[in-house]
Every structure is written in structure tokens, then in C-alpha cells.
Amino acid sequence: MGAALTSFKAFLRRALRRRAMASPPTLKNLLNVITSGPSNLTVDVFETAYLTQCGESIRQSLSVPATRDILSLAYISELMLLKENVGSQHEYIVVHVYVRLNDSDPPVFLGAVKAERTVHEGVTAKQHVSFVVNDSIRRSSSASSIPGFSPNPTTEALDRVFIYDPVDVAELDRNDHSLLYHYTYTPKGPPFFKFVVSTIALHIYSPNYTLFQHQCFWYAGMLFRMVGGKDAESREPHDKSEKAWEHVESVAAEKRVGSKPGRFMDVFRVITNKDITQEFVRIEPAFEARLAEKTNVLLRVRQEKEEEIRKAAAEDAKKAKLEQDNATKDATIASKDEEIVTVKRENAAKDAQIAALQERLARMTAAQSDHPLASSSQLDHPLAHQT
After folding, report:
1. What is the rounded CA–CA span in Å between residue 26 and residue 14?
2. Helix (H, G, I), strand (E, B), or coil: what is residue 39?
3. b or e along 11-42 (b: 16 or more beta carbons within 10 Å of the residue's beta carbon)?
4. Mind listing the pLDDT tens digit for each residue in 263-309?
5. Of 53, 72, 59, 64, whose CA–CA distance to 10 is shortest?
6. What are phi and psi of 47, to 5 degrees?
7. 160 contacts 216 by C-beta, under 8 angstroms
8. CA neighbours within 13 Å on the CB side: how many for 107?
């Protein structure tokens, strides 16, 4: 049984290795997102998909040592803040995700993720304008004197991500946008897990879309700060000699209007770096708490699987010992059976000897019976009584 299990595990390792070589991992495959082209997920679904598949990856890597827990190893290599050059000059974040399976192997590009804040498609232009007016009034000191004013607008933000496999990443460059800030990590950046939790943590903190406070500029800037850390806050290289931060006014040769972060048409300053920094202080405790909570979720998955493997190993060891004990007992019984057979054989030989002696004695007795005079003459002989 043990040899068969070992052979099966070896076969499974070879099969998984061949599969990995035949089809390099991608973000959509790892997250079990089955779509053609970029995948569009709300941030809550995004986090659930990550935790579910990461848990499965952890279990598999513990069960079959030849496999790797790729999602847990995935990290951010590039962090970008971009602005659309047309329309509302929408801002969003793009990260490139890599994994290094072994220290001696080159990193593998898993794909890219675009994260943004917008509103649901069901919100009409009239509703949006009405909401913007409400939000403007809410921010004024005279809001409470206006009849029918609601201080709590209910326009829910649509915070979502688009997942691009390596073959689809070129689609990101087709948009008319400006690359505002670009950070390249060397040798590798924060874990992909941190980015995943950041997207939902911001939505939990601010689930509603407000034009002058929690809109796409705020979401992109805050996400940039949460993922990029202190370097992102200062927008300065952590090591200026490496020129890690690259500030690009526009991807076009000529400077375009509206290429500054947090501003609309370079005129309306909607969100500033100071706003982001100050509000991050309020968000950070909840963000760190959620990071710890989800880290513990994955830790429990690992611990439960390790305990399952430990119990299975203990059970296998118990069964192996029982099989060994039974084999020993069987060998002892077989040895005793052999001893019994030997004793029986010896007894049979002795019985045969006794039977032969008895037969000889019977023949002697019969012979004496046939010669009675010989016996009596011996008894009557005078020397027979001498001592």
C-alpha cells in the first residue's frame, strides 16, 4: 500500500510539472476566472476569488510538494497611476504581477490588473447630476436650511478590477491616457495579496461615490498610497540613484491638458496629495486589521491542511505499525505452526519406533510361545539358581 501511494505521488508530481511547462500560469487561470479577454470583477468578488483559489493552492502545495503556492508567492513588479485624456479624465491604477517559482529561475509574468472607481451603469445622467448637486450642497454650511435635502446620498460606488492575462495586456495601451506615475520595484515589490485586500478595504471604508470627495481620483490616489507605501506618499524615489519613480506628464510627444493627478483639466483640483495622506491615517488601522484578518484566514487554511496531513500521516503510521504487528504475529504463528509440524513429525517418528518395538516384542513373545521346553529347561537347570 505504501509503495503504491509513493508511486502515485511521483506520477502526480511529474504530471503537474509537465502541465506547468506546457501552460505557464496566468492570473485568470490562477483565480479560476473563465472569460475571453480581460475579466471584469467587483472588488468583493475579486477578494473572494483570491482567497478561495489561494486556499486551494496552499492545500495542493502541501499535499504535493512538487507544486508551488503561486498566488501566495505572486508580487507586484510595477505600479502605475494613469489618467484618461478624454471625457471626465478618469484616473485608475494598473499593476503588473509576477512570480518567481525558484531563486534560480527568471520571474514569470502572470498578467496585469486595472483597478478603478466609477458608478453603476444603471445610474442615469439625470440621477448623477442630481446626486452631484446634493453632494455640493452637503458640503456647504447652509445645507441644513434647504427643504428636502438629504445629507446621505445613496449612489453606490462601483469599485472593480479588470484582470489581463499577458496576451491581453496590450489592450491597456490602446486607451487614450497619460501615465502620471510609474514605480518599478527591484527585485520585487509588495505581495499581490496586499493589493487585493486594498481594493476591497477602500470600498468598505467608503462604499458611496461622491464627486468632490470619494470619486475615481480619490480611489486611485488612495490605492496608489496603500500599495506603494511611504514612497508613493512622497512620490519620490526611495533611492534617487535608482530613479524608481518616473513622473511622466503624458505619453504623447506634446504636453496635453489634464495630465496632473487629482485634477480635472488642470483647473479643478479635486484631490490633493495632502488629502490622500491625511485620510490614509484614518483608513490605515482598518486596512491593517483587514490584512491581518485575511492573513489569518489563509494561515488557518495552511494550519488545517497541515493538521490534516499530520493526522493522515499518523493514521498511515498507525496502519503501517498494525500491518507490521500483524505480519510479525503471522510470522510467529507460522513459526509455531512449523514447530508443531516438527513436533508432530518427531512424535510420528517416535510412534513409529514404539510400534516397531512393540511389533518386535510381539514377535519375540510369539517365538517364546512356540518353544516352551526351551524356557522350562532353562528354569530347571541347576546353575540357573546360582548367584
Report:
1. 20
2. strand
3. eeeeeeeeebeeeebbbbbbbebeeeebbebe
4. 555 555 567 778 888 889 999 999 999 999 999 999 999 999 999 98
5. 64
6. -65, -45
7. no
8. 17
Straight-line distance from the first to the last Cα atom of the chain, in angstroms, rounded to the nearest whole number: 82
C-alpha cell at 316: 498511515
C-alpha distances out from residue 36 to 97, 168, 172, Å: 19, 9, 15
Q: Over the stretch 163-192, which tens digit does the pLDDT of each residue have? A: 999 988 888 877 777 888 888 887 788 999
Q: Which value, in Å, is the radius of gyration of the alpha carbons in the chain? A: 43
Indicate the residue type of 381.
H
**Cα dihedral across residues 114, 115, 121, 124: positive or negative:** negative
Contact call for residues 153 and 208 (beta carbons, < 8 A): yes
Following DSSP, what letter does each residue of 182-251 receive, concatenated? EEE-SS--SBHHHHHHHHHHHHHH--B--TTSSSHHHHHHHHHHHHHTHHHHHTS-SSGGGT-EEE-S-S
pLDDT at 46: 95
**Average pLDDT rounded to a whole number, residues 222-247:** 59
The C-alpha cell at 135 is: 453632494
